[in-house]
Amino acid sequence: MIRSLSIFGQRPVSLGVLTACLVTACAPAVNEDGIARRTVREINSVFLDTAITELALSPETATRLGMEESRLGFTFNQRLDDRSQARFERTRLIRLELLDRLTDLPALPDDSGLGRHLDVILAEYRDLTRLEAYGFGRYGPGYARPYAVDQLSGAWTDVPDLLVSSQPLASHDDAEDYLDRLAALPGAIADERRRLMSDADNGIIPPRFVLERLEAHLRAFTRQPIDAHPLLQNFGNVVAGLEPEDGRTANDYRGAAVRVMLDDVIPAYTAFADEVAALAARAPETPGLGNLPDGEAYYRDVLAYYTQPGADPDFLHETGLTAVDQITAEIAHEFDTLGLTAGSVTERLARLSASPGQRYEATEEDRAAVLALLDAEADAAWAAMPDILDTPIEDTLLVTRMPAYREAVFTGAAYVPATANGSSPGLFQINLRDMADWPRFTLATLLHHEGVPGHHIESVMTSKQTRLPLLRQMIWNTAYGEGWAVYAEDLADANGLYANDPLGRIGYLQSILFRAARLVVDTGIHARGWSREQAVDYLVETTGLPRDAMEREVARYAVWPGQAAAYFAGRERILDMRHRAEAVLGGRFDAAAFNTALLTGGPRPLALVEQDVEAWYDDILQP
Fold it and tell me: Which helix (H) or strand (E) covers residue 397, if one does?
């Protein structure tokens, strides 16, 4: 499932960290780790400067995170990110300078908290600058993508999502900022169009079927009735509540937005769709990065970025194949135990999905029933949390339907973290446009991955660490975050959440099977030259999931290489850490304490998580 903010690579932040690092007066000469206070201030200042630089480069990120303009010292809610080729080049140079400054910081004790922050940040900037050196793609703290725009992301969808889901609209100034950003959308699309076409001239072209999907999305945007368009409907509803004597009237605001949409925005989408269609005619049929200059080297680097340094595509491919066989055998056993013995595992999974007790219809009643079931699963998961984590977590998780404007683009479900300013709680959003995507037996595991004990718990644990620098909270590590969320599915099973739901446990095993199959397909596409059809066929024949859903998955892997591999690879690394901790501690092993040790350090490379786990059990073993 695409995790909404996994697309932007962001996490919730604490505004307190902007000032907490400015330690002054009356303190000892060294901190608790024996580091000179002057050095602590210098390093925290560099961290803060780096974070603010990143937010200045991406004003959209600052808005999404719920930052306050007065805290950052510059305005951002009226501006969009600069998506031009010139900005790409400037950003690449800026990040090299940031890396140089970070590298020149004083040496720190390996076991210090400040040293750990520096390790995480240095690892991120080394990876980002290595990938940016290829000269194509999009990069930021926590994400890397090879194409200037694709069917899942880019100004054409990111900006409407920003305006509807994150743009403040509490005042007339906010409303004017909204109009400014709406008016800037055509320019952002034009910048990405120029980058896409320039890259294409250098052999960097997304696969044809990806461009065809992008074109379809662009044209669908233009066909929406203007009065009901999401960009106008929500805006119109909110500005109606503003006091007219303090600014424009609601009708004036709506009229201005309609004119921008009709005169500028919709023509920009139409023109972009026409160019995408023309580019598709000369785009490659195969989905892999092997189509790109230096594609093999780029894949190794981006795979390492999303999984772990030195990741070997062949090893991961074989790991996935072995896991697929093992999990398939376990699912077969579960079916046999229930007396469901006819056909292959794939056939039994498909038959179960289509059975009357599992299917929901595209009615408001059934959509409400899905949300109610997910709420009930969340309640059961919350009740099990004391056995899963030894730190109390009470932060609200709201289960809701994905907004219609996102349902047309994003499949599956998504977790949206709470904003830093408290304007929105953590959200678990599910796409209920196509109810065939959600057989009943799959819903519990979906909730455990996206919500409790998955992304929501990890996100809350990160946000509660007030001593975590702002920059650390901005860096999302996919192997850590998605690895935890898949491991959270295992935790649900281990803590009895499927004890009275044998079909739900089959849904859990199918989910793990799907993660292993992703590992096979991602490496198959990008390292072994698999065709689109070969990849889709493998997923359908392995997982029993619908073909149209697997076609969407393959399109995702084509434009987001390495990311899907991180789910299973991250989960396996975490399980390996747990097995070693259990072996070392024996009867002294405490699962809840282990899980807390995993999450306490925040998003970070799994090699550093492993060091933290080893330090945790070494402390326990001390006499």
Answer: strand 397-401
C-alpha–C-alpha distance, residues 76 and 71, integer Å: 12
Dist. CA 451–CA 481, nearest whole Å = 12
CB-hemisphere CA count at 13 Å for 287?
27
Angle ∠(47,51,52) on CA atoms, nearest 5: 120
pLDDT of residue 123: 96
Distance CA 124, CA 298 (A): 16
Structure tokens at 125: 């900037």
> Which burial class, exposed, middle or buried, applies to 421 when counting CB atoms under 10 A from its CB (0-12, 13-18, 19+)?
middle
Which residue has 């056995």 as its token pair? 387
Strand-pair partners of 36: 30
Q: What is the pLDDT of residues 143-168, one digit of tens each?
A: 999 999 999 999 999 999 999 989 99
Token pair of 332, please? 């077969």
Distance CA 154, CA 146 (A): 12
| Beta-carbon contacts of residue 210 (< 8 Å; ≥ 6 apart) | 150, 151, 283, 287, 555, 558, 559
Within 10 angstroms of residue 345's Cβ, the number of other Cβ atoms is: 23
Q: Which conformational region is residue 3 in: left (phi greater than 0), alpha (psi within -120 to 50 degrees), or beta?
A: beta
Which strand ranges, in their side-by-side order, compose the sheet holding 397-401?
397-401, 426-430, 413-416
Task: Identify residue 11 by its one-letter amino acid code.
Answer: R
Token digits of residue 307: 């999984």
Q: What is the tens place of the pLDDT at every residue in 267-313?
A: 999 999 999 999 999 999 999 999 999 999 999 999 999 999 999 99
Tokens describing residue 543: 């997982």
Are the C-beta atoms of residues 71 and 51 closer than 8 Å to each other? no
The full set of domain ranges for the chain reads 151-203+208-283
Instruction: Note whether 430 and 437 are within 8 A (CB).
Output: no
Give the type of residue at 580: R
CA atoms of 275 and 270, how far apart (whole Å)? 9
Q: Single out the residue of 617, 614, 612 nearest to residue 115, CA to CA.
A: 612
d(CA 189, CA 616): 49
Is residue 111 exposed (0-12), middle (13-18) or buried (19+ Cβ within 10 Å)? exposed
Query: Could you tell me if 212 and 280 are in contact, meaning their C-beta atoms sit under 8 angstroms apart?
Result: yes
d(CA 507, CA 442): 5
- Which residues fall within 8 angstroms of residue 213, CB to CB, at 6 or more apart? 151, 555
Predicted TM-score of the model (pTM): 0.93
Cβ atoms within 10 Å, residue 175: 24
User: 112-142: per-residue pLDDT in tens?
Assistant: 989 999 999 999 999 999 999 999 999 999 9
Report whether 292 contacts 213 (CB < 8 A). no
Instruction: Quote the CA–CA distance of 614 and 576 in Å, as a whole number.
Output: 12
Helix (H) or strand (E) holding 139: strand 138-140
State how far the alpha carbon of 372 is from the alpha carbons of 247, 369, 377, 447, 498, in Å: 42, 5, 9, 12, 18
Pairing of strands 397-401, 426-430: parallel
Residues, the chain: 623
CB 214, CB 151: distance < 8 Å: yes
Torsion (CA) 603, 608, 613, 618 in degrees, nearest 10: -140
Residue type, 342: A
Q: What SS3 state is found at 143? A: strand
